[in-house]
Design goal:
With 599 residues, this protein is an alpha+beta fold. Helix content is 40%, strand content 24%. A hairpin with a 4-residue loop joins strand 9 and strand 10.
Length: 599
């Protein structure tokens, strides 16, 4: 039986996740499992019931030949096109020139983790159909496998003993001979399912996790919550109990999440042809659960701010979704508690700022700031209760100047406008406040307010990057608020509003996306970097010179899949080359006495 994982003092949610992950490698070969498998044969009438085993997880690594190709590709991006040959040379060296004899280099390698309800048994699955060369290779390393009969061999290593057995086209490896008896008849199906999509993948079948371990995870979560729930200084008993009640509600939701989670797959793929790599996280939920309902949030997504998402900009994002009304109703109590807690904490923080003299001792200013924050909390509350998310924005650093634009859905945007007017009223008492041009223009039904803020000379590099002044714009129209900044901000804002209107109501795919152009950001950074950092940035950019335009991005996407959701982190060729060049440059500088100071 597995001992509970040590208590964690980190985030309560991380405690639960860490507990679940930690269950896999622990307590292999429990006594109950071994006894059930190895018990002497008894008369039929007295035979114990067969122990049912279930697969908890499957991990798969692509075949050896494909792996060498991927290593060669990645090595080439880092300036070492012979990386694959180097790996094969090292294998030959350590095996006395025999290489990996016996290994089928066109089939995947994997691990299957099974449970009998009490513990866990990992079984390695090697594509080896003939043990003879493997046994001979072991002898070269002064290792003497012991033949235990029935094709099972025992091998004592410095830290542990392993057992292996060749069955058909596979050789199975585990740390107990009993586990070998439970090896899958043909692991190829499960392994192939993973390596068809990924070079390295792991699938967790959450529903096969014994209930006792789910309970352990929740207990660890509660313990972590109790350790973190300490009444803070100056926190009233009422505030403390409200925070405790919210934490309890969150734990209940996490419990529902654990119960509703069906299959989790994490996979890493390297594509030499497309010259990119990506990591996927796929989650599916049991039908009829709250988690399954939550995963429908991003189905059939549309957006009224698609024009603000510019994939070729330095950074850009877009997300849109609607929480199902049934789920909103179930979450109503927690949402209201969260809203009240935010309101209480902000009010308390403002009062502390006033008492510490950080807010002017002027009743009008204090009242204006309190009113503005109250309006913004109301906006937050309306958005939580509404359950609709629709946000887009981007930062463009190409060419001369820059611009940043953003827009989002708000049930009542006049509250945002009112909040900013109150803040401007408070700021107007400062002699240097530049003032706001309220309603200076309209565009496509959007009222624009503007302000030009001087950048002081002492700002140094910031002044060099931003210019002598920065233009800020806020727009209000319909059910959305709009923001823009920079010398090109207004032009880009109007263009984005028009493009968004033209595509309003059209499906968007994926419904969640974040894109960062590494080349554009590094080019802009080089212009304002201090002298000790600019050379390294320049070297990284020089390593990206042959990358096609637009192939230097980090892309994070979130989209629905059958019964669940997938999040993908993709790195294009330019990013991989930038990483390789940065590593090579840092290594070279270290050999020469260290990287330039300040970088």
């Amino acid at each position: 039986m597995i001992a509970p994982a040590p208590r964690s003092r980190t985030s309560r949610r991380l405690v639960a996740l860490a507990t679940l992950v930690s269950l896999t490698p622990l307590a292999i070969g429990p006594a109950a499992f071994a006894q059930a498998v190895a018990a002497p044969e008894a008369p039929a009438a007295q035979a114990p019931a067969a122990v049912e085993t279930k697969t908890i997880a499957v991990a798969a690594l692509t075949n050896y030949n494909q792996l060498i190709k991927e290593i060669t590709f990645l090595g080439g991006l880092g300036g070492n096109p012979n990386a694959g040959d180097w790996v094969e040379g090292m294998i030959a060296f350590f095996t006395g020139g025999r290489g990996l004899e016996g290994l089928d280099k066109d089939r995947p390698i994997g691990v299957v983790v099974q449970t009998d309800g009490a513990g866990f048994a990992p079984i390695g699955c090697l594509p080896i159909a003939d043990l003879t060369p493997v046994l001979e290779l072991a002898e070269n390393f002064a290792l003497e496998p012991i033949d235990n009969g029935d094709g099972v061999y025992e091998l004592e290593l410095p830290e542990q003993t392993i057992y292996f057995q060749q069955v058909g086209e596979w050789t199975f490896v585990s740390n107990t001979p009993e586990a070998l008896a439970q090896a899958p008849a043909d692991p190829a199906k499960d392994l192939q399912k993973l390596v068809e999509k990924y070079d390295l993948g792991v699938t967790l079948y959450s529903q096969n996790l014994p209930a006792m371990y789910r309970q352990i995870a929740l207990e660890q979560l509660r313990q972590g919550m109790e350790e973190g729930l300490v009444q803070q200084e100056n926190e009233t008993e009422e505030e403390f109990q409200a925070r405790r009640a919210l934490a309890e509600t969150q734990i209940a939701q996490i419990s529902d999440l654990i119960d509703g989670l069906n299959v989790v797959t994490i996979g890493w793929s390297i594509d030499a042809e497309k010259k990119h790599t990506f990591i996927d996280a796929e989650l599916t939920a049991l039908e009829g659960t709250d988690l399954a309902l939550a995963m429908t949030t991003y189905e059939n997504a549309t957006s009224g701010v698609t024009g603000f998402h510019r994939p070729q900009a330095a950074a850009s994002f877009l997300t849109s979704g609607v929480t199902p009304p049934e789920l909103l109703e179930k979450q109503k109590a927690q949402n209201e508690a969260a809203i009240e807690m935010v309101r209480s904490q902000i009010d308390k923080a403002l009062q502390e700022q006033i008492e510490e003299g950080k807010i002017p001792d002027d009743p009008d200013v204090q009242e204006a700031i309190k009113g503005a924050t109250s309006d913004l909390v109301d906006v937050y509350a309306d958005m939580i209760r509404n359950g609709r998310v629709e946000v887009g924005g981007s930062l463009d650093l190409a060419g001369e100047g820059f611009d940043a634009i953003a827009a989002g859905y708000v049930p009542d945007p006049t509250k945002v406008e009112a909040a900013f007017k109150k803040l401007a009223e408070a700021a107007a008492k400062e002699p240097k406040f530049p003032g706001v041009e309220w309603g200076y223009a309209t565009h496509a039904g959007v009222t624009l307010h503007g302000m030009t803020v001087p950048v002081p000379e002492e700002a140094g590099q910031a002044r060099e990057a931003l210019g002598e002044s920065v233009r800020l714009i806020m727009g209000v129209g319909g059910e959305r608020v709009y923001f823009a900044m920079g010398p090109r901000g207004e032009e880009s804002l109007k263009k984005a509003i028009d493009e968004s209107a033209a595509k309003a109501g059209q499906p968007i795919s994926p419904p969640g996306e974040l894109i960062v152009s590494v080349g554009q950001i590094l080019t802009a950074a080089e212009k304002v970097a201090p002298p000790n950092a600019a050379p390294m940035i320049g070297m990284i950019l020089s390593g990206m010179e042959d990358v096609p335009a637009g192939a230097d991005r980090l892309i994070v996407t979130s989209e629905p899949i059958d019964g669940g959701l997938r999040v993908r982190y993709l790195l294009e060729e330019g990013v991989l080359k930038a990483i390789g060049q940065a590593a090579a440059t840092a290594a070279a500088m270290q050999q020469q006495g260290g990287a330039p100071g300040g970088f």
